Amino acid sequence: MSVTIYDVAKAAGVSIATVSQVVNNTGNMRDSTRQRVLKVIEELEYHPNVMATALTGKETKTIGLIVPDISNPFFSNMAKSIEDYAHEKEMSVIICSTKYDRDKEHKYIKLLKQKRVDGFIIASTFKDQSLFEKLIKKKKPLVLLSIDDPSIEVSKVSIDDFQGGFLATNHLIEKGHRNIAIVAEEAYSSRKRIYGYREAHEQANITLKEKNILHTTATIENGKRIFRKLIGRGEAERPTAIFASNDLLAIGIIHEATQHQIHIPEDISVVGFDNTILASTSVPGLTSVAQPMEDMGRKSVEVLINQIENDDASNERFLYNPELIIRETTMEKK
Amino acid sequence: MSVTIYDVAKAAGVSIATVSQVVNNTGNMRDSTRQRVLKVIEELEYHPNVMATALTGKETKTIGLIVPDISNPFFSNMAKSIEDYAHEKEMSVIICSTKYDRDKEHKYIKLLKQKRVDGFIIASTFKDQSLFEKLIKKKKPLVLLSIDDPSIEVSKVSIDDFQGGFLATNHLIEKGHRNIAIVAEEAYSSRKRIYGYREAHEQANITLKEKNILHTTATIENGKRIFRKLIGRGEAERPTAIFASNDLLAIGIIHEATQHQIHIPEDISVVGFDNTILASTSVPGLTSVAQPMEDMGRKSVEVLINQIENDDASNERFLYNPELIIRETTMEKK
DNA sequence: ATGAAAGCGCTAACAT
DNA sequence: ATGTTAGCGCTTTCAT
Q1: Buried-most residue among A19, A255, B138, B219 (CB within 10 A)?
Q2: Model-level pTM?
Q3: DSSP 3-state of A33
Q4: Which of A96, A116, A281 sits opposite B278 (nearest CB)?
Q5: Domains assigned to chain B
């Protein structure tokens, strides 16, 4: 059906080995030969069959990207820049959303292995971290994106979550808040953000209440749910500010507040995280900690490719700086 | 390295042909043999090498998805449901974002062909429609998602855009608006939405002004730009309502309005399209025409698989009903 | 009912 | 400098 290496060889009057060498830019040969073959390749629009190439043990030029949920703007943004840069490098990307489900994690790793992806980028949340070890043991190129876990020796690209947590909390403290709740999603990054939250309290000499630290999964619905729980505490106990560990949760909180005639930021200040499109499109605009998603996505591909090409160099770490974007959901405590 | 069909054959004491037959559930053989082989496959955790399988002409179990921009919530939602359903069917999906760029369209089609995807799902916008014809001629399974163009004979999954355009416009007309602008993105679907917009005017016996029909690409920035252009007309000429052909544009419009101290909906009513997360998270909540993204994504995979499996059945058409979700950006004309 | 062998398109070691 | 050939892991036809 499609044109094969044999067609090219025949048309150019050489053997398939020579064609192969031309394609891979290896071996010695007369320059005239190379040119002739190149011309035929052009004319016949020959493209090596990826399957056949892969079968001989070479790369598939495919990256496996595993995220919890591609419909979360944070991940779709990351995915965009990953895909973009991968394509620049002549690679394609297969996307898998785990939906925070352990079984899916297993399934997708297995699937991607079968598809012989050249490497993996795993983002944000992974319940079964033992899978990382397995991948590493098998020398599979792997980059963790937004999972800056020191216990895993592998390449990582993240922001400084501690710093981010500190920035957000400190901003609220500076605004006079003393009763600040943190709503943390179930992700490694959030643990660091909580430490940052603690540190900000310590530096300001504020004793934080452990019950102000809440955990959930990153959805708008959960933001709403948590908010109801929070105001269920009654006026006195109710926090005057909430730091949500991502924008989805923050948006849920804002919306539920509106439902309860609680005004943001007059009654309660809110800070989000990620600075996704949601932060800039919500009204009031959501104060949020920005991550350089573009750069991070790009870098993760770069690091991965580096790993694929050099068997060593498998433990680079890149930490980006978070930036607090102040909008309208935070104000002085009254 | 990994366990091959030979390993299984040896362990089960049969030939590789038999193993192959067991895997593919073909051929006749003693049930005991089948069971024995199956057991070995289980034990050895054998998985056929996709590359080798594909090389013999069988399917790759991969779908190529081409969208304009995966970071647009509308597409990331579609992608999510497509990916979801594809995985249910043991297929994976390679995503490509064209960024509305003609060259990228060519590049990605070529890329996906090389990767031997079993079929294509192309969504929303494609500048060079001649590529469709080429695909069709080569009998490549193809489904157009949100491109309900009658001039192309191929399977399609869309909503009724005419109906959607009518619904949105009619809603505004019923609210007393007579000077309604439509901001249409460059996509086939928008053309139909414009017809719906026209029809609503006709039925209400309103003569529309052609200059109220504006075109642009779907970004928030363009929404802002168009809005500035619109209010540049001066009070008298300025439309009292704007129908944006997607939420991104609508959000841009709302934001720019705020900048100019123009109140939505008191001064100008706005209707969006797609009913993405942006419509529900913006304040005021954006009135928007909903598409059943979940169902549409799912259906497109279903149709594609049907096409892959049966060489015929390549011209199904599914039209979903749009639904107007009324929120807070539309009100009676003052 | 089961196996032997050719072939899918390519790479790489070995010949010439 | 270029060609021959043995795999890579699988499917499928043809024998047995």
Answers
A1: A19
A2: 0.93
A3: helix
A4: A281
A5: 5-48 (1.10.260.40), 62-160+293-321 (3.40.50.2300), 161-291 (3.40.50.2300)
